[in-house]
Amino acid sequence: MKARIFYLLALAFFPAIVYAQLQGQQKIDSLLKELPRQKDDAAKAEIDLSLSRAYQFVDPAKGIEYGSKALSIAEQLKSDSLRARADGILGLSYFNMSEYAKATEYMQAALKINKAHGNKKGQAGNLNDLGMVYGEQNNYPKSLEYFFEALNINEQIGNKDWAGRNMVNIGNIYLDEGNMDKALEYHQKGLKVFEELNNKNLIAMITLNIGDIYVNMKNYPMALDNLNKALQMLESLGAKAVESSCYLSMGKVYTGQGKMEQAMECYLKGRDIAKEFEDKSRLAAAYGYLGEIYFDLSKGSGNRAQLYKAKAYADSAIVIGNEIGDLETLWQNNLILSGVVSLLGDYKGAFIAHQQYTLYKDSIFSKDNAMKIGRLEAKSEYDKKHFADSLKNEEVKHTASLKLRNQRRLIYLGGAAVLVLLVFIYFIVKERRKSERLLLNILPSEVAEELKRKGEAEAMMFDHVTVLFTDFVNFTAFSEHLSPKQLVDELHSCFKAFDEIISKYNIEKIKTVGDAYLAVAGLPVLDNIHAAHVVSAAQEIRDFMLLRKEQRGDKTFEVRIGIHSGSVVAGIVGVKKFAYDIWGDTVNIAARMEQNGEPGKINISQTTYELVKDKFKCTYRGEVDAKNKGKLSMYFVES
What is the DSSP secondary-structure string of 91-138? Predict the structure, then answer.
């Protein structure tokens, strides 16, 4: 929610985010060294408070730990001033962990103490924090109540800086409510304050927010004017990390104006900056916007290549959304994905994506929101009833009733017609799917489509893929102790589980050869995080086999897994019993990774390690002699 975004940015927005984080860690290290040297309890409490404040955003749980220590000392010393500060900081730490009931409890405790002692500045701070808590829970009336109260106090005591922040927070609540006029009014009030204070950082941020408000108002010229101003200020301040937001908002302007090429250019710039600064939230947003553009373009042109691009971008957004727990990203991109795969003829996939969309949407519009909607609906029903009762002319009421009845008849007739049409479409689709099911089970959907359209499918080079190779340890010796049926049943159970796992990560199964299993990510649809997808799938395969070994003992296998990233050629082989296959040195090295691995381990190459080292903990094994490849650097994936 934007009210919270402003609060965060007000603390650590400019100019060099990475440097600020390093400075914060240095401060923590310094405080941790200083703490044991202190013998005075009050001094210890001050350091505990400083640590709690420093940990607040990087590790809120640690912030709570040190804040609780400070609170304990404050109670021992019977220091209300110290206790109020500890309560306030604990409230913010719980807020950052989304534990809103606890956050409210501590903030209210701090507010009570500050009121008792007439600490106006402290009261205003507590009220602002409570406004954020209620805003984050979408309780906008309560949030506004606290923000206005904080604003009133800050204006009384002449605290212009925080009065300006309160104004922008109020503007953001109105923005979330959809009241754009009020949102604009309070952002402009806040902007005026910070222009008087010459706070360039916040002037840039508020100008960016005003640009977003104009985007929502569909006033695209004013939106572009403010966004360009914000971008120039960000560039002069050296705040490149935040430029991503400007470009994404500009992309929305050009999309609204129907200038898709310019929109795509802005989204790509926003994506590249987000990648550079590892800003997953904005990266997911960029992927989502790009997916939406390609989806919209494909609806007008029927271009399947654009549909595949839309799918790849939506998939990437969903993967990141899952990583960061962003429900809004998940519901929006599952909705796009549902439409895309439906147009591609994958009705089952469309149904699953739509189920996910509904699930995440329901999670966002939680029980509290449903209660608010219920209250609004009840008020609306009351207003309608009051209006009807006030009609003195019975003829008018009768006419309204007839009109309603006719409308209902039309709805019923229309519904029946739609139902008949849907049944007709269902039988057409069912017959068509029968003829396509076998082809899609053999080939990737994109290749199957090309084969149907052209009668052939060309081999293609894919420069950025990751290959997964698995093999069961001592398979030959194991097979001697089982009947042929038992052996095949066990292989089927394992490979069926593998199939289900890789499907979650958009990995294409290539084939099984005996007890070996070959799959690849990054083709035929490009995948920007192919290596991470494969390693995640490999971890699930490893864990599945370890658990199965615990449950079945000698009746199942142990698995070795090898992974390598690089380029491959992919295409169809032969004309009878044809198969989709991949070739290249990348496949051979993946096989060497598996052969030189260990049971229950995931062995990856140097190339793959460079792509996933920031996401997974790996242990370097050194250079290992691989058959016909010489010495290759290898790593075990630990977690």
Answer: HHHHHHTT-HHHHHHHHHHHHHHHHHTT-HHHHHHHHHHHHHHHHHTT
